[in-house]
Design brief:
The structure holds 2 protein chains of 2 kinds.
Chain A (H helix, E strand, L loop, with lengths): L1 H13 L1 H21 L4 H25 L11 H28 L1 H22 L7 H9 L4 H11 L4 H20 L32 H27 L3 H12 L5 H22 L5 H13 L3 H21 L4 H12 L3 H19 L4 H24 L5 H59 L14
Chain B lengths: L27 E10 L2 E11 L4 E5 L6 H8 L7 E6 L2 E2 L11 E4 L11 H9 L7 H10 L13 H13 L5 E5 L7 H15 L5 E5 L3 H6 L3 E6 L2 E7 H7 E7 L15 E5 L2 E7 L3 H14 L2 E6 L2 H8 L1
Parallel strand pairs in B: 3-8, 3-9, 6-7, 7-8
Antiparallel strand pairs in B: 1-2, 1-4, 4-5, 9-10, 11-13, 11-14, 12-13
Classes of the chains: A mainly alpha, B alpha/beta.
Amino acid sequence: MRPARALALLPLRLAPWAVLMTGLMLAAAAALPLALGSRLRTPASMLAGFALWFLWMTAGATLKSIARRETLLLPGFRAALTRAGSVWALLFWLLPAAAAGLLYGPAAGWMALGYGLLALAWAVLASSGSRAGLYFWAVLIGARFLPAAVWAALASALSGALLPLAAALLALLLLRRAWLRLFPPGDVPLPETPMQAPDPMQRGMAQPQAVSRGRLLRALNGWSEQAAAERLRLCAARYHRAPAPARQRALLRALLLPHEQARGWLVRWLLFGGFVLAYALALGRGAQIGMVAGYATFFAMTGLNTVGLGMPRLRPSLGELYFTMAPPTHAAFKTQLVDSFLGVLPGAVLSAFVYTGLATLLIEPAAWPQVLATTAVLAPPLALATLALYLNLPRGRIGRTLVMTVTVLGQMGTSWLLYALIERFGPLWGGVPALTVAWGFALGAWGAARAHWIAQPPCFDPPDARTGA
Amino acid sequence: MAGWGLDRLGSPMMDATIASPPGTARAVAVRHLVKTFDGHEVLSRLDWTVAPDRVVGLLGRNGAGKTTLLRCLLGLVPADAGDIELLGEPMDGPRGERLHRIGYVPQSFDLFPWMKVGDFLTFTAAFYRRWDTALVERLLAEWQLDRKKKIAALSQGQRQMLAIVRALAPDPDLLVLDEPVASLDPIARRDFLATLVPLVRRPGKTVIFSTHITTDLERVEADIALLRGGRIALMRPLSELRDRLRRAVLARPSGFTALPALAGALSARLHEDAARYVVDTGDAEAMARLHALAPREGAELALTPMDLEDLFVELA
């Protein structure tokens, strides 16, 4: 029983704060109706449902953290996992479903069993890194556009006695898919960028699991890789002909940021433009354009975190790079590296134009010139400031998460605020102060972050497992 | 005649230098090097000098600090204290082009996994003024390394081959190899040594070669440096080790329950009721003590030659 107990308690050991938070939410859900009356029973049930869903997300993430092929070689691993899963199912699925049955009647209990299993399977699938986990959101967005009659029919069907059973069967399929996602039977896909490494090369690091890719995506990436290789050869030849710091930085950019070139951007826009389109469609016409443009700009900046997250993964390669570049000092080495990171900015800024342009065309085509002008004012400093914040991510997981969360919230808030400012006060009275403040902050943040980064001695060792990457 | 740097109890008495001709710059000079990890001193005031034109095999048990020493030498790990000179200049001074005179093959080559072999070599070659394209092409062909393959798709051994190709291509003056052949099959290992030897047996070329495969060091007739207890406990040409070091076994019918002391022995232990020592036959005083010890203990003395692996087992 020891392995099963260890597995069942693993989420508590690996993510104690998440489990504690879930426990507090469940306790609050139980205490609220008792303390404040039965009118809070429904919100309390929703809170409990969310807490359980979050708990299963944590379980999925925990499973992902131990998902290695070697893990399957542990004696009795599958049996232990089955036993641990059974305990979890009893505590966090069957018992809550039984409570729902007691509180709201047998039909509700039956529905909680079926839909609850579907929800937990989706949570496990989503946290295993599968893109299929995103389909749920697509369903939610799509639901906005369903006519009332379809809704009525759906509501009737949802209350049908057999649908929870169908949901449970679907859940079993999702769980199987999650298992295959975590322990894929075939070869692990090879890495496409410096920020991603295949399984055998990243032992001891927090694992960015190699995502199994479809044929179309592989073809698109291959197309982008061809251009990246060509650019690398070109930059190498130019540098070899006449070595100069600027040419060295260009060569470094070609090496470290292979997809920061026209084809790479196109592939990115094809892949992620869909999310922006879905978001714009979900909001529909008449939505506040500044808000949508702000979101689209923020979305364009999300890729910048690869610099902060990717650097630790790059560390084993840095020693080789150090000898190759033969810099006079460690500081000179880091200066060239950090300045080459600026190569991510054009892609981020162009993406902001593409995404905001797309969203504006769908929502409010007349505002297109104004939104693009605003993007031109805001996106470059926002990208620079974001890169500065991601550059010195703390090594500890908690600190890193904190910085990333603050950065994301700051990005969103700043984007919305500045778009609103320009929209409200016009390009002169809104734009000029926005431009001044945004560039002032961006240049200050970048200067400080760059100096701090250069001052730190370079680390050539791979990151350890706890600090992750 | 002085001993070779290890007393009976194994405490090092430093002699970590092979003399270079007067006026010749040292390839590597380390003085009082200290490196500590989590309170454990891995390198303990280590002194070491390597003359140019030598091939040095760095031996030591797992965890002895070989990789740490090599990484400290190259500036990849900051030392806690001590001075390091590489190719005649302080390592903590501006390096610049000096790094291009150094070739390094790390213990595990987990580098640039997203790149193709050809792109990696193209990228690296762009930085070097000296780059032996013919050698690269020959080795790629001989070792069947496909230029179009991603590095991540190579086996560990193939990656090590690629690291060796990359390290040899700039024709470095100092080649630092950290267990370079650990993942190679015997054929590739022999190929590598056959390639390495003529390349490095030229004037001005120095190789430091950390390995556990002692036969490889015998094949290239390396000088042997033994890292033990955080210091270079012994450094001598292999031929001298072979000629001078002997295993001395004292045996008697009643056996030994306690080890008789022998001052000057490089190592001493009880094995199957016999007292076993490693002695330096060039140390006349120690040999005299050994020959006096045998009749005093009523034991027969047998002296046998040792190969490098035996020496490693006895001394490391």
